[in-house]
Structure formats: structure tokens, C-alpha cells
């Protein structure tokens, strides 16, 4: 067992974690009480991103070192990475109570708390992340999501910052989110700016079409109102309100034969 342990430790210290796992695992088999070998196995799996194996090793290690908060933190992260959010929450709650500084900048913890409806610790973590990294788009995005229901203006501030920083799919999502929030806050010009951008990329999105319909009504932009209505009556053939409104346009244009269809 010693030969395996010595070889594994050399590889581990050289940061050759993948190669270190096999001899260290053998060392643990020969000497189950060898906590140092078990810890190196757990950290090696964790470091190379093999989170299912990391969970197994960290669970065994935590039983031997229940007061080790760093092991607890890694176990929380590994559970999160393996999509076991409820188990991750248990360990994050323990850390929040006993060693909150260990998760002060852990975005994974913020997500777990948010999804569990625990907004206060999530917001605290996200604000801490932003204080150290003003270009962290995902932190601004999650803050915007949490504030969206209770404070449109605050949510807009966070989403606008995320908008500048985020790329890819979330950027498309932000067009819609910002558009809906600006509509909610009564800023129809900015609502149109974002919702029209969203519609160009997502022409069949009913929610944004419906929001645009309300704004065009408010601004009395009948030309655009008619275009949106036409899309809505095609997408939502059972919606009587849309049919009645569209038929009125057709009657005003003396297109009686088409109006009868609606």
C-alpha cells in the first residue's frame, strides 16, 4: 500500500491529478484508514471535473472529517454539478450558517439558493461577486431575474448591465426580458426597442407579440398594430379578441369577404 501511496502523492504534488487517481485509489483499498490518500483522490476527481466520482469520494471523506468546511464546500459544488440541487442546498445551508465567507463568491451557491426560493443569501453572494468582478454578466443576469417580480426598475438596471456583458442565447433572452420590464414600467419606447429586436429573431413568440399589440394600441400605431394582429390570428386562431380586432381593420379597408372569416 505504501508504494501506491508514495507514487500517487508524487503525481498529486506534480498536479498530475488524472494519473494520481489510480495509485491513490489502490492505496485507499490497502489502507482504508488513510485519510490523506482518500482526500487526494477526492480532490483529484474534483479538480479534473469528474463530479460523480468526486461526490462518492467526498462523501466518504466527509464522514471522516465532518468539521472540514472545505470538504463540505466541495461536496456542495459536486452535488450541484451532478444536478442534485437538493443535496447541494443542504451543504450550502450548513456553510451559510457556519462559514459564510467560504461561499461569499460562489455563483453555484447563489443559483442553488435562488432556485430554493432563498433570495436573501443569493443576492448577498451575487453582490459580493460583482464587487470583485464588475464584468460578471451572469451575476447581473441572476440579480435581474430575482428582482423582476418585485421591482421592475431594479431588475432593468441589472439586466441592462448583463445585456452589455452577456453573449449568445441569454442575449436573445434579455431582449424579451428587458422589453417586458420596460413595458411594465411604462417606458414604451424602450419596450419597443427591445421587443422588436426580439421579434426579428423569434417571430412566433406569442408573449412578445401580445406585448407589442398592447404598445401599438397605446401609441395608436395602426399600421404596425395590424401586422401584429395578423400574426396573432394565425398563431392563435381560437382567440376571439384578436379575431374581432383584426376583422375591424378589414372592414375599415372594405375587405368584407376576408372580414367574414374572422
Describe this structure in words.
- It is a single chain.
- By secondary structure, the protein is mainly alpha-helical.
- The protein has helices at 2-13, 17-30, 35-48, 51-64, 69-81, 85-98, 107-115, 119-132, 137-147, 152-165, 169-185, 188-201, 206-219, 222-235, 240-252, 256-259.
- The chain is elongated, with a radius of gyration of 27 Å.
- It starts with a helix and ends with a helix.
- The mean pLDDT is 90.
- What is the radius of gyration computed over CA atoms, rounded to a whole number of angstroms? 27 Å
In sequence order, what are the helices and strands, one letter per element? HHHHHHHHHHHHHHHH
Main sheet specs: none
Assembly status: single chain
In percent, how helical is the residue content?
over 70%
Q: Tally of extended strands?
A: 0
From the spread of the alpha carbons, the general shape counts as: elongated
How many DSSP helices? Answer: 16
Uncertain regions spanning at least 5 consecutive residues = none
- Secondary structural class: mainly alpha
Descriptive labels:
262 residues; mainly alpha; elongated
Please outline what is shown here.
The chain contains 16 helices and no strands. Helix 4 (51-64) runs antiparallel to helix 5 (69-81). The chain has helices at 2-13, 17-30, 35-48, 51-64, 69-81, 85-98, 107-115, 119-132, 137-147, 152-165, 169-185, 188-201, 206-219, 222-235, 240-252, 256-259.
Amino acid at each position: 500500500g505504501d508504494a501506491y501511496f508514495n507514487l500517487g502523492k508524487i503525481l498529486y504534488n506534480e498536479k498530475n491529478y488524472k494519473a494520481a487517481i489510480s495509485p491513490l485509489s489502490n492505496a485507499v483499498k490497502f489502507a482504508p484508514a488513510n485519510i490523506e490518500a482518500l482526500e487526494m483522490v477526492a480532490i483529484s476527481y474534483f479538480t479534473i471535473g469528474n463530479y460523480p466520482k468526486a461526490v462518492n469520494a467526498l462523501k466518504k471523506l466527509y464522514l471522516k472529517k465532518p468539521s472540514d468546511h472545505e470538504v463540505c464546500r466541495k461536496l456542495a459544488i459536486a452535488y450541484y454539478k451532478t444536478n442534485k440541487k437538493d443535496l447541494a442546498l443542504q451543504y450550502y445551508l450548513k456553510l451559510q450558517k457556519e462559514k459564510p465567507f467560504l461561499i461569499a463568491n460562489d455563483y453555484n451557491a447563489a443559483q442553488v439558493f435562488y432556485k430554493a426560493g432563498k433570495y436573501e443569501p443569493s443576492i448577498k453572494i451575487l453582490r459580493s461577486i460583482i464587487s470583485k468582478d464588475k464584468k460578471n454578466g451572469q451575476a447581473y443576469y441572476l440579480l435581474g431575474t430575482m428582482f423582476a417580480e418585485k421591482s421592475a426598475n431594479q431588475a432593468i438596471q441589472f439586466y441592462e448591465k448583463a445585456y452589455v456583458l452577456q453573449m449568445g442565447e441569454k442575449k436573445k433572452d434579455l431582449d424579451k426580458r428587458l422589453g417586458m420590464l420596460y413595458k411594465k414600467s411604462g417606458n414604451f419606447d424602450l419596450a419597443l426597442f427591445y421587443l422588436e429586436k426580439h421579434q426579428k429573431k423569434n417571430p412566433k413568440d406569442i408573449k412578445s407579440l401580445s406585448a407589442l399589440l398592447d404598445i401599438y394600441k397605446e401609441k395608436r400605431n395602426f399600421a404596425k398594430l395590424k401586422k401584429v394582429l395578423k400574426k396573432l390570428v394565425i398563431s392563435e386562431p381560437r382567440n376571439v379578441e384578436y379575431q374581432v380586432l383584426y376583422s375591424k381593420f378589414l372592414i375599415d379597408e372594405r375587405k368584407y369577404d376576408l372580414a367574414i372569416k374572422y
